Amino acid sequence: MAGVLSIRRDLVDAIVEHARKDHPDEACGVIAGPEGSDRPERFVPMLNAARSPTFYEFDSMDLLRLYREMDDNDEEPVVIYHSHTATEAYPSRTDIAYANEPGAHYVLVSTRDDDTHEFRSFRIVDGVVTEEEVQVTDGE
């Protein structure tokens, strides 16, 4: 295990809820946090522009707006999340190819089972995937 993603329970719930809501399409979004803090704080659900059950793509205008917002707030994308609707929560070849934030935690949620979900976090740097521990915290 490389690192640890420490994330509040309400943010985990929000990600899972978004993933369930968009099922059978993949859901995606970002959790922004103060630059350099590694603290996910602001939940930003995004639209899957691909509207696909096997692929996600941020809308380029949405993404541009989000990055401007984060710049203004001295934030960075701490978590980049998306869901897999039929497969395990592990980055696909496409996910790995599109991963261009080496500092971010890539969170995957699998909604293939109705009653349970997988919630896993990875670092993806230069095509190398490293799973990390997820610590869920209550509140601050």
TrEMBL record:
It catalyses: [CysO sulfur-carrier protein]-Gly-NH-CH2-C(O)-S-L-Cys + H2O = [CysO sulfur-carrier protein]-C-terminal Gly-Gly + L-cysteine + H(+). Keywords: Amino-acid biosynthesis, Cysteine biosynthesis, Hydrolase, Metal-binding, Metalloprotease, Protease, Zinc. GO terms for biological process: cysteine biosynthetic process; proteolysis. It holds the Pfam family Prok-JAB. Pathway: Amino-acid biosynthesis; L-cysteine biosynthesis. Protease that hydrolyzes the covalent CysO-cysteine adduct synthesized by CysM to release L-cysteine and regenerate CysO. This is CysO-cysteine peptidase. It comes from Jiangella ureilytica.
